């Protein structure tokens, strides 16, 4: 059989062919698969309190910014998002996509008026992408160097599941409505609004990535808080201008709020290969 002549400029060889196959595979990957493999890359060298480098933060943010509800198999017509006739807090559904010791991926499904009360993310970097709907987000960070202060005797919160008689000062970072589509929000172990509260104005879904995930055995316990206005508790000489005081609150740790139900459901959207 005669040998074929090499066409000028033609690239041949195993490396070139593998590169082309890799590019084709990447184009065929489902968005949720791209999210999973990106998380593996971003959190590979991270651990509790260790934030991925800025390039990796931006890489994961870009992937999440491009994901829609359809990409992860959720839409407003699903039963999780129906308005609930109840006197207490509406039930929230969590769709578990993946969890390992490095990161977790899941979707919170909130019906109208659903609330994830104010809680923390110890030693975590967290990415939250609002897939659809309108949500009010309030987030705060601790003010370092300020000692805890006693909540006044007789305050009703002391009998409302409080775990401590003292509260710690925090600064409000965000307190506003977000309407999808919007950019992914990111919080860090000590800034960016590590403690936050989600309130569904309409039915909405939030795609959450936590690195690393909660782990009680390793000390990453989800703590909840009661909020107190700045002026309610003695500031012990703390000097904050009158016009800025609304941007500060005292937070008192509490039990998990009574009536809060987050119902775990297996993820049934597009599959990921692990």
TrEMBL record:
Keyword hit for Magnesium: no
One MF term in the entry's GO annotations: cysteine dioxygenase activity
Keywords, sorted A to Z: Dioxygenase, Iron, Metal-binding, Oxidoreductase
Family matches, as Pfam families: PCO_ADO
Chain spans, region Disordered: 1-25
Swiss-Prot/TrEMBL cofactor(s): Fe(2+)
Composition skew (Basic and acidic residues), residue ranges: 1-20
Enzyme class: oxidoreductase
Superkingdom per UniProt: Eukaryota
Catalyzed reactions per annotation: L-cysteine + O2 = 3-sulfino-L-alanine + H(+)
InterPro entries for the chain: PCO/ADO (IPR012864), RmlC-like_jellyroll (IPR014710), RmlC_Cupin_sf (IPR011051)
GO biological process entries: detection of hypoxia
Enzyme Commission code: 1.13.11.20
Family from the record: Belongs to the cysteine dioxygenase family.
PANTHER family on file: 2-AMINOETHANETHIOL DIOXYGENASE, PLANT CYSTEINE OXIDASE 1
This protein's name: cysteine dioxygenase
Lineage, opening ranks: Eukaryota, Viridiplantae, Streptophyta, Embryophyta, Tracheophyta
